[in-house]
Specification:
479 residues; alpha+beta; Methyltransferase, Cobalt-precorrin-4 Transmethylase, Domain 2; Heat Shock Protein 90; Arc Repressor Mutant, subunit A; 3 domains; 7-stranded mixed β-sheet; 4-stranded mixed β-sheet; globular; WH-like_DNA-bd_sf
């Protein structure tokens, strides 16, 4: 944000000095940026980039109004729900609105606007509207209309899931008051083509919510191939072949990550976070959101001994390595990205690159994350499986030192396995560990009495789980 404030206003940057109310022309700028290449709008900043600030007593009202108006087809047609961020600069409140490029054509007050270096201008001539439509059609294939798609072609159980995800992320989200069809329409998954008047559900709708057989009929080449190549590098140690909707594909990929990649104890401030989850939720979402789905090449997620590497077909917006300290985020599938944001699976655009870059060294203990833009988009996250292997010896030694000598070797091996699994998957319950180790829950509870120095139970009896103690984690961190 500080980097942006040092720049002059341009095609993708707008300052508005209003302090007490939303600017009268704000939605003209939002509409224009949606129709062009997106951009950033700052409220409380004058034309020269000086921080004036928004009055503190109206900040939250303005944010709420912005969210509601961007979701209102009377104000922005079609709606494109935005999530403004409030920042404090020089003890003054500033509202930052990140506007992505959209795959649709938007209107405000029934007028289409486009963006140039000179600002926002009305687009009323049919040939100019056609130019915008052609530009978006050529770049954003997620907006292709499939007139034959009907509501019955979508997985009905997914609508329950998305409501639960939205509710847990934002209990006051305006979509929660809508029925299934209204959610599809207001999220842009149903659209009208301004060139030929065609209306219907889009490719994005099928990918996000379609039944598996529907997706395969529309894009039969669609698949995500997840592999582990640590021991058998010629083929694979494990493989997950995904051909389902993107909401469940995300969950399957994250389960694959949990099974095959270790976690690591990490404090951010005074709060423990899962480095594995924080990094790979961004990598997984990026693989899904920014893929060019009309390209027949598969998306891949491969875990090697020294790195995790993803690759997906891409409609590039530039070439070469992305510099995390100086880049402009550009969604390749704005509708899909927007939908994932509502579910709480993605933060604001560009945050994934920044978060992953910041935490990768903490996770791997070496190297930097790499993001390579081109006809395929490649992400490389360094790993350190040699340290992970050595941690097995650490666990074995710690269990042997801690547990009574009267405990037989078979039980010690099971205790070691429990420690390793809790290091990989913190929070497992007795029934989970019983299934993993092949013994009864009674045996697991007996095992826990032997591991009181190394394992602790956290949470309520019915919903809590087992975690490694700080003592055990310190042993692993110092291996």
């Amino acid at each position: 944000m500080k980097r942006l404030l040092k720049q002059k206003e341009n095609i993708s940057l707008e300052f508005k000095k209003d302090r007490n109310a939303l600017p009268a022309n704000l939605f003209e700028t939002i509409c224009a940026m949606l129709n062009r290449e997106g951009g950033d709008i700052f409220l409380g900043i004058d034309d020269k980039g000086n921080v004036k600030g928004v009055e503190e007593n109206v900040v939250m009202k303005l944010v709420t109004d912005l969210v509601n108006l961007s979701n209102n087809p009377q104000k922005l047609d079609p709606p494109f729900i935005l999530f403004p961020q409030v920042h404090e600069i020089d003890e003054r409140k500033v509202i930052h609105i990140q506007v992505p490029a959209s795959s649709q054509i938007h209107k405000t007050a029934k007028i289409i606007y486009d963006r140039s270096n000179d600002g926002d201008f009305k687009v009323e001539q049919p040939h100019r509207i056609a130019e915008i439509a052609n530009r978006k059609r050529n770049h954003y294939t997620e907006g292709i209309i499939y007139p034959g798609l009907r509501m019955e072609d979508f997985k009905q159980e997914l609508f329950i899931k998305i409501r639960n995800l939205i509710r847990s992320n934002n209990p006051a989200h305006p979509w929660l008051a809508l029925d299934d069809k209204q959610i599809m329409e207001i999220s842009g998954l149903w659209k009208k083509d301004y060139l030929n008047g065609q209306e219907g559900f889009t490719l994005a709708s099928a990918l996000l919510l379609g039944k598996d057989d529907v997706i395969q009929q529309i894009i039969p080449h669609f698949k995500i191939d997840a592999l582990v190549r640590i021991n058998n590098t010629g083929r694979y140690d494990d493989r997950l072949y995904i051909q389902t909707n993107l909401i469940e594909a995300y969950e399957q990929l994250m389960d694959f990550v949990t099974r095959h990649l270790p976690d690591k104890f990490y404090l951010e401030g005074d709060q423990r976070i899962s480095l594995r989850t924080t990094i790979f939720r961004e990598i997984t979402a990026n693989l899904i959101i920014h893929r060019e789905y009309t390209n027949a090449a598969p998306a891949t997620f491969v875990i090697y001994e020294d790195r995790a590497e993803t690759e997906n077909p891409n409609n590039p917006h530039g070439e070469g390595p992305i510099d995390p300290t100086n880049f402009a985020p550009f969604p390749k599938n704005p509708l899909i990205a927007k939908f994932f944001i509502q579910l709480g699976r993605v933060e604001e655009l560009g945050s994934g690159v920044l978060t992953t870059s910041r935490l990768t060294k903490e996770y791997a203990g070496k190297g930097n994350a790499e993001f390579l833009e081109g006809s395929t988009f490649k992400t490389i996250i360094p790993l350190n499986f040699r340290n992970t292997v050595s941690s097995v010896d650490t666990v074995t030694d710690t269990v042997n030192d801690t547990v009574s000598d009267t405990v037989n070797d078979t039980v010690k091996q099971r205790l070691t396995k429990i420690i390793k699994e809790l290091n990989r998957q913190p929070g497992l319950k007795s029934k989970d560990l019983a299934k993993i180790t092949g013994v009864s829950e009674v045996s697991i509870r007996r095992d826990m009495q032997r591991l009181t120095l190394l394992v602790e139970f956290r949470g309520a009896p019915k919903t809590g789980g087992y975690f490694l103690t700080s003592y055990m984690l310190s042993k692993l961190d110092n291996r």
